[in-house]
Amino acid sequence: MIYALVIFLSFIACVMGFISEVTAGNITHLKNGRKPEAGATVFPTIPIMQLLTVLVTWGLNRIHPPLGFYTVSALFVVFALFWVVSYRKLKREFDELNR
Description:
By secondary structure, the protein is mainly α.
C-alpha cells in the first residue's frame, strides 16, 4: 500500500512538471511571436520517475521501516509548495504575454 501511494505521488509530481513545462514552452512561443501551442513529452519521465521513487522508498525503508515513505512524502510536499510558487510566476508571465 505504501508503494502504491508513493507511485501515485510521483505521478502527481510528473503532472505538475508537465504543466510547468508546457507553460514555459508557451511563454517562449509567445516571446517569439508564435501561437502558444507547446507540448511536453511523457515517456522518459513517467516510468523513470516512478522507478526511482519506489527504489528510494524501498532503500530508505530497509534502513528504517517508515523512513522511506516519510522522506518521499516530505520531499513531495516541499516540491509541491515550490511548484505552486513557480507556476504562479509562470502563469502570470504567460497571461501578460497572451493579452
